Each structure stands twice: as structure tokens, then as C-alpha cells.
Sequence to fold (1176 residues):
Amino acid sequence: MPWVEVFGMGILDNIISQNGYQVVLRNLGYFLGGAGYTIFITALSLAIGMVLGLFAGLGKLSANKIIYMLSTAYIDFFRGTPLFVQIFLLYFGILPVLYDNDPVSSAIIVLGLNSGAYIGEIVRAGIQAVDNGQMEAARSLGMNQRQAMTYVILPQAFKIVIPPMINEFIALLKDSSLVSAITVPELMHRGDLVFANTYEATWVFGAIAVIYFVITKTISVIGDNVERRLATD
Amino acid sequence: MPWVEVFGMGILDNIISQNGYQVVLRNLGYFLGGAGYTIFITALSLAIGMVLGLFAGLGKLSANKIIYMLSTAYIDFFRGTPLFVQIFLLYFGILPVLYDNDPVSSAIIVLGLNSGAYIGEIVRAGIQAVDNGQMEAARSLGMNQRQAMTYVILPQAFKIVIPPMINEFIALLKDSSLVSAITVPELMHRGDLVFANTYEATWVFGAIAVIYFVITKTISVIGDNVERRLATD
Amino acid sequence: TGQKQEQKVLKVGTNATFPPFEMQENNEFTGFDMDLIRAIGEEQGYKVEINHMDFKALIPALGNKKIDAAIAGMSITEERLKSVDFTKAYFNAGLIIAVANNNETIKTTEDLKGKKLAAQNGTIGAAYCDEVKKLDAKTEVRIFDDIGAAFMELEKGGVDAVVNDHPVTAYYLKTTGTSKAKMVGDIFSADDQYGIAIKKGNTETLNMLNEGLDKIKANGKYDEIYKKWF
Amino acid sequence: MIQVVDVYKSFGQLQVLKGVNFQVAPREVVCVIGPSGSGKSTLLRCINQLEKTNSGQVYIDGEELTHPKTDINKIRQQVGMVFQLFNLFPHKTVLENITMAPIKIKGIAKTDADKIAMELLKKVGLTDKAHVFPGKLSGGQKQRVAIARALAMQPKVMLFDEPTSALDPEMVGEVLAVMKNLALEGMTMVVVTHEMGFAREVGDRVVFMDEGIIVEEGSPQDIFDNPQNPRTQAFLSKVL
Amino acid sequence: MIQVVDVYKSFGQLQVLKGVNFQVAPREVVCVIGPSGSGKSTLLRCINQLEKTNSGQVYIDGEELTHPKTDINKIRQQVGMVFQLFNLFPHKTVLENITMAPIKIKGIAKTDADKIAMELLKKVGLTDKAHVFPGKLSGGQKQRVAIARALAMQPKVMLFDEPTSALDPEMVGEVLAVMKNLALEGMTMVVVTHEMGFAREVGDRVVFMDEGIIVEEGSPQDIFDNPQNPRTQAFLSKVL
Ligand SMILES: Nc1ncnc2c1ncn2[C@@H]1O[C@H](COP(=O)(O)OP(=O)(O)OP(=O)(O)O)[C@@H](O)[C@H]1O
Ligand SMILES: Nc1ncnc2c1ncn2[C@@H]1O[C@H](COP(=O)(O)OP(=O)(O)OP(=O)(O)O)[C@@H](O)[C@H]1O
Ligand SMILES: [Mg+2]
Ligand SMILES: [Mg+2]
Fold:
């Protein structure tokens, strides 16, 4: 059917002839490289954040006053101040005292600390949502507090915690764009550079948005699957 | 003890003589006005986000395929793409078609849509965490789906949902700084303006961070109180 | 000593979103400022290493010695001199007004009074808009973080004019702005002087850069670079 | 009043009800007994359609619940249910648990609902716990609140899933009295129970279920003193 | 084996235990009966210190649990408990519910633990539900899994909170058999129950509680056939 071809060619030609389209095409590899940085940094800081968040969440439930106060102070600070201030503070102020810090490792540390604060609250809430009888049943079997947490409470909290955790993963992925401030060449950073050079807002940020969307959708699909697999009723 | 005085005076003098200190002092009212905007915008977009999130969360649990798909698409899009792309898209692209949009109202709409997506997932998870027997008990009393949701499930989900919701409030408060890109005169925007005129990064952003901290700490204290008051065991 | 000097490194920070002064093309930093600092480095026996960062991060990076100098189209002002040191001015930008193609009401700086104006944060254009507002309180000033967004606001019709450094606006009109906006009036406010920022009190680097700047102005290198970009 | 016609129900592979036929006349009290896992709870849940049946019909008061056009909520208001695990609303006090449905669904004034609720709490001996949250009640106290909650809707039919399992003998006696009163007032009841003494006392008729079917039914005397089916005989011989 | 000395326990204003004194000899089976809310469950929970006592001492096998230096977890491994509301672990299958503690605490090999668990499941008639999650069990099935889970730790003492409340008569008979076997094997047991027939069958001694104190105790014959205290008499007169 010739008219379909003509019509199709028309649209295609129109797209190809657009400068913005060419800008995106030319920079696609560059963007995907940036996405690689974004994923790499997010994944590592998430690992840090989950460990810190677990301890901070447990700490906020601790009977020990000092542990409770430390956890609270940690969560309050890293949740309460703007991320880019934290990035500045640690990158320029604190980390240089500790080691010869480079942007990427600094970014991972700051994002890890930051997400740990949010995850801490998520973990605390998840633990508290598990029925009290579960702890009692575990303790009555002779488990100590730690064993009951590890084998009985946390696995159940884990299920409750998945959806807000996925929310946090996705927020972190996007917050990671802030480390472009300290020269980490991640996705948004590269988008900014290309935009500034070409002023093709729609095409450049459209492409960036699509890449982010693909990554976040992947995360949420994985999250849904984990959630479904853990459902026992 | 004279040496304390001397020492104390020394520090004080040192601080006062700093240019940055004076910059902050001079602009404190200006910053607090910006904080007013930040709180105003966050509060209104939160109100929108909670309504949207409630419907989106319920929608994701709906048996109706179309409602389910609409909710999922909404959540996926607004959670999956960078906030600042959404700001650009709505401010420059979509809203001008609908009305003669100004930065503040546009910011509230975009942030409301964005937080609604995160809140939607929180609400869905909260509802699913309520024991199944509760729905059955409500239905067996003759309540319809809507009544059972309103009187039995949602009030219980509400308690579970508070901590991740507080997380989201705080994240939204800080994300609201992104509307600085379309010249909404909120806290971070004003910080940027004063910084650019003085280059006093430490003092200016330090002051901004303290103001954010005070606001977020207030939110989390309120959240803790609500949580405690709702505890029934 | 010449060989030893060549191994010295000058770490320079910039924010490569300000064409044609600093930008990135094909993963390379290019633009007037970039060529200039490289020329100075070569003249003074330094290997120049360029880092792109947030505009906000340039000052802390200087303070922390993560970079030795910042070159990013920074205008020299009294207020900023309290926090950092600047080299001698290396460029006199001058401002220009940009309006929508179909705008016939704004022709000169006089016409700006009482209008909606946009400028980029931290530029002399922003300061100029504030001055206009002082003359006529009905004037509305919108300061964007990013000059790209300011131009988009102009295209959207949210503001009547953008007041910005001439070379930057010219570059925008050459790329996507051609069909949507135009420059009106003459270049004005000729005291918009760019300088290279150095940590306050770092006289060693300051002197070195000033010396290099003098040298390339004397040997014609500066004019060569200027011609390449403007 | 209640008619269950040829009801089948499976969970995945597991057939739980395999063609149950069963009638309850108005004002009749029927006790359902049978071994654990035989489908007693499932049958109750099918009666008020908390569990969708795979095939067969359920009628209450002549209306077919299994028909897609039926307003199931209207009918459920006439059908009270007491769950084996109580399912009290943890976010509401005892009193609010009882008054919620009357106020919200029937639109009864709060003061009236409170008065009715306090009377019911008196019946089950819990007036002093009216303003306590369910989390602080003992097992038997929860059980009694669950009964009061169902009664507050003044249903025509009551379904009890082991209403006495967490009660002490005194309370069993009192609940029995409450139920006998209800029967006098014309309440139709289906009671799943493991307590044979209770079944004998309260039941007009006893139904013995096993493996998803009704094996035998008859008057308490018939079933307990003269069971016909060997399966029933075996089951009852174990009663202490 | 168990000594409870002058134990007081309050929840806020509410005094629940008001000086309970109580001994259980090794191999003895004691049944605790009494009205709802009298403090039976609370007493059991104080015995393994799930509930901290306000004053008084609790000893098991000579060790004082109420002493702050005691390793409570070690002792609890010797003290199995079956809860009124089961409290099965919903994220684990029936088999895993039973084997978790032996594997994780005692370090028994998984294959051995599985073997022991399957034997226990056979005892309670649930081998076919080994790989099912608790959410899919009927009430009586949950109850039996809870018993099996407690037995899997091979405790010296077992505390039962109404172990038969969700069981049908057949299962009650079987659990009774299990418990009698345990008694023969030397298990010390405290059983809170509302089923007098069960108490009579299984108990070496019966304890009657009311309003936070032990009102009367003695052999089943003494208590059931010849109660001394008027409160006990009134209570037992209600048994069907
Ligand atoms: N939601 C479910 N999914 C899968 N199987 C189920 C479900 N609910 C019940 N069953 C199974 O159906 C069978 C009958 O369960 P039901 O609760 O009706 O038994 P019951 O007669 O009430 O037993 P009990 O006296 O122990 O309460 C049991 O084998 C149980 O495991
Ligand atoms: N966590 C708690 N907070 C406040 N009060 C409680 C709590 N647990 C129990 N109680 C109260 O203590 C009293 C005794 O409760 P307990 O559970 O020991 O009774 P019981 O004898 O086991 O009754 P039942 O036979 O009904 O199970 C009851 O009045 C109950 O309301
Ligand atoms: Mg049942
Ligand atoms: Mg009890």
C-alpha cells in the first residue's frame, strides 16, 4: 500500500531532519555511558544505604539510649538537610581529611549516607508493623533478641518494606543526579552539558527522561515480582 | 574567669568579622520569606499529592482493568522520570495550553502530581499490609467495598503508612527546591541568588541547610506524635 | 627549569554550560575561556586540567584546593571580591536585549521599564534588571538558574525580554532561537568584565595568571582566540 | 431461610466442598460438627459469600446470593457472622467496634447505638471494657466482643464459627443463654462448634460434615445418641 | 520443676496477678482453669517471662528466671509454649515453622530436623500440609502446627494456652494422646484449658484461678467432684 509508505516516510523524514533528533542520536552513546555511571553509583550507594538503614532502623527501636540517640541524630541530619549541602560538606570538608577523595567514591559515600537515613525510617516502620505475637513466639522458642529479629521479624518486615523501599530506590536513582555538582559524569550531568550546547530542551531532556524511565520501570517490575513471590496467602 | 571571656569574645569577634556571617545576617529575612514559599508550595502540593495518591493507590488495587492501567501509568510516569523534566514539560509545554500559567501554581501542580505517584505506592502497600480478616469482618457486617475501605481498612493503613509518608513529605519539601528552575522564589532559589552575588558558599548554604533542618525536624516530630497517638497496644 | 615547569599542573574548574565561553563538544571542553586558560597555561609552563562542576561548587572547590582557578564567565563585582580574588579582566562582555520575533514595543534599554524581564542568576544582566526595577517598581524580574530556561520562558511568552551577556545570547540565536527571537538595540553596560577567580589570598597563582594573561595579550595569542569565537 | 444447593468450592487443586445441600428453616438453630479441615468454616463463608462458590446456589430469605445481580451488602446486613479468629477492628475501642456498623450503615444515631451496644456488652459481661482497645483483651473477652458486634446489626440470621472456643465454661453458659434468647426472639442460626455439649443444648438440628460433604444430619438426640453412619459413630466415640 | 513465688503483675492500673504461689513437680501435669480474664494466660506468660513480673520470683529447674543475670534464652529452650492465637510464622511453611528453632538455635542438621518435624506432623495428623503456608490452614490445623513447633525443641517443660480450643473432638483425643505420651516420657506440663473433660483426663493436678489468685487446687477428682470453695463450685456448676 503505497500511501502507508509515503506517510511513514514523511514522518520519518520529518523526524530525521530535526536538529534535536540528530543531537540525541549523536549523543546516545554518551548518554548511555552516563546512565551506566548513574546505575553504578546508585547500586553501590544503595548497598551502603541498606546496611546503614538496617542499623539505624534497629537503633531507633533500641532500648539503649545512646544507640537510640545516635540513630536519631544520623537520620535527622541526613534526612533533614539538602542533599547537595551534604555533598559539598563531605566532598570538600570531611572526606579530604580521611583520604585523598575522588568525586565518584565521595558521591557513593554521600548518597549511601543519605539513603541510609530514609531507609532507616522505612526499616523501623516495617519492623513495628510485624505483629507482636511473632516476637513472643520466637522468644518463647528460646531465640534471643537478635535471632528473633533475624529469622522471624526482619523476613516479615522485608515484605512490608518492599514498596516504600522501591520508592526510595527510585528516588535515590534520581537524586544521584545531584552528584554531577562534583563532576561525576552521570546521566543528568551529560544531559545538561548537551542541552547547554544545543538548547534542544525537548529532545535532549526527552531522551534523558526516557532513559530514566526505562531504568526505574525495570526496578519497579523487579520489585513487584519480589513482592509477588513473597506473598504467602 | 577572664580567659573564657577572652576566648569567647575571640570566637564571637571572629565570626562577626566574617563577610559571610554578615551576608547571612543581612539576608535572613529574605531566606525566611523563601522558607515561607517552600512550606506553602509543599503543603499545597502535598494536599494534591495525597488525594491523587489515595486514588492511585486504590486504583492499583482495583479489579477494573482500565482503572488499574491508568493508575499504573500515572505512577510509572511521575515516579519514573526526573522531576525537573516534569517541571519543564508541564511549565513550558502542557499547562500553557490549559491556562495562563504562572510559576507558583505550576510548581504546585507538578509537585502535587509527582508526590501523588510516590504516595500512591505508599498507600497501596499500606492497604495490603492490613490483615485480610479485617475486610472480611467489615463485609460480613454488610459494608460495601467503599465503606469497608473508609471505615476499617484505610484507618488501619493510615497508621502503617505514617513513617514512609513522613519520608515522602520531607523528600517533597526538599524536591520543591527544583522549582527554583522556573524562578519560584523559594528557599533554595533565594540561597542561589545570594550565593551568586557573594560567592559565600559555606555561610549561605549552611544557613539554608539549617532552615531546612528546622522544618524537616518539625515535620518528623509531628509525625512521631501522630504515630504514638494512634498506637493502640 | 623549563622542563620541570612543564610538569606543573593547573587544575581549573568551570561550568561548561555557557557557550560560547565554555561548553562541551564530543567529550572535549571547548569555548573561548577554555582556549584562553590553555593558552595561559602553555605560556606559563603549566599543564591545564579542566574539571566541569556545578557553578555553586566552584567556590568551595577553590577554597578546598580541589582546583587552583575557576574560569566560567564570572563577572568581577565588589561584593564577590570580598570572598574571592579575581585576575585582571580578560573579557568585556556587554549586555544585549533579546525579545520575541514579533515584539515591536521594546527597542532600547529605556523600553525595559515596567516590563517582565528575565536574566541568568549571577550575571551582570541580573544586576541590571534589578536596577531597572529600582527605577520602575512595576518591572517584574525573573532570575533563572540556567540561561536556557530563561530563553524558553521568552519563547513561552512568560517574559518580554531577556537581558544577558551579548556573546551568549548571540550564540543562542544562532542555534535554536533563530526563528523565535531577535536581538534589539545596542550592546550596553560595557563594564561587564569577566575575570578568573582564585582562592582569596592565593597571590602566587594570581600573579602567575595575570602574568600569563599579559603575555598572551602581548604576543597576539589572545586576539587569535577572540577571532576564533566572535 | 437459608438454602444451600449443590455447592462446590475448591482452593486451587484442593476440593473443600463437594456438593453440599443444606436447608435451615426460619427460627431454626443448626449446629455443624465435624473433623478439622472438613470444610465447616468454608461452608459458613460460602453462605454469606465471603468465599465465592465454584458452582451451586445459596439463598437467604428467598434471595439468591450467588446471582450476580443481587445486592450482597443488603443481605449481609441481615446475616451476622462471628469469626473463629474474631477479626475485631484493632483501631477502634470495644464500644466503637460494636457501634460502627449500625451507625455507618444503618444510620442509627450515635447515642442510640451506644445504648444498644452497652446492653449487648452487659449481656456478654464486658461493660467495664467498653473503652478498651481489642489488643488489651484476653482471648475470651475478644470472642465475646465479636459476638456483640455481630448482634448489634440485629440480623435475622447469625453464623457462628466456633463461638465458644475461647470461652470458659461459665461464659459458654452465658453465651448459650444469649443464643437461646436469640432463638426465642426468632433468630435463625448456624453454629459451627467442636463442643458437643453445646451442640446438644442449643441445636434444633445437628449436621455432621466430613471431607466436604454432609454425612449425616438429624436431631441432636438422633446424632449423638444414635448415629447411623460409621464415620459419625467413629467421630463421636472420641468425645471426652 | 517450676516454682512461682508470690508473683504480682499489673497492666497500668489493672492488677492481673495478685500474689500467685504455685509449684509444679517434675513429670507433673497441672491444668489451670478459671473464668475469662482471671489471669491464666498472664500467669503462663510470666512463667517463661514473656511478661516481666512486677514482683515475686519464678524458678525453672532451680534457676531463677526473674534474676537479672539469668540467661533467659537458654532456659526458654527448655520451655515450650503453645499460644492461644497460635502465632505461627506466616512467611514460613508448616515444616519450616517446626524446624526453624531446632536448626537455628540448636544447630541440628536440616535433614535431621526435617525428619523429627515430619514425625511430629504425623503425630498431629498433618503430614500432607508440610509444605503449605499457615495462611492456608484451618483453625484446628494451625493449632496442631503450633503444638508440633513447640515440641520440636524437645523441651523439658511445656506450657499450653488452651491447646484444644480450635480442635474437633477427634483431634482433642489425639492431642490428649500426644500429651499423655509426653507425660510418660517425663514432660512437665502446665495446661490452661476451658475443657473440663480434658483437664480431668490429662491433669495430675487442677488449679482453679479467679481474679488474679489461685482459689483452690487439688487432684481432678477433688476439684471436679468435691470442690471446697464456693467460687469453684459456682464455676463448675455451669459446665455443660
Ligand atoms: N484460603 C485457602 N486456601 C487454600 N486452602 C484453604 C484455604 N482456606 C481453607 N483451606 C483448606 O480447606 C480445608 C477446609 O478448611 P476449613 O477452614 O473449612 O475447615 P474447618 O472444617 O473449618 O476446620 P477447623 O475445624 O479446623 O476450623 C482445609 O484443608 C484447609 O487447609
Ligand atoms: N497487654 C495488656 N494490657 C492491658 N491489659 C491486659 C493485657 N493483657 C491482658 N490484659 C488484661 O488482663 C486480664 C487477664 O488477662 P488474661 O489474658 O491473663 O486472662 P485469661 O485468664 O487468660 O482469660 P481467657 O480465658 O479469656 O483467655 C484481662 O482483664 C485482660 O483484659
Ligand atoms: Mg474452621
Ligand atoms: Mg487466655
Q: What stands out?
A: Chain B touches chain A through 41 residues (CB under 8 Å). Residues 122 and 161 of chain B are 7 Å apart (CA to CA). Residues D 138-139; E 40-41, 84, 161 surround magnesium ion (ligand 4) (CB under 6 Å). The longest helix of chain B spans residues 19-60.
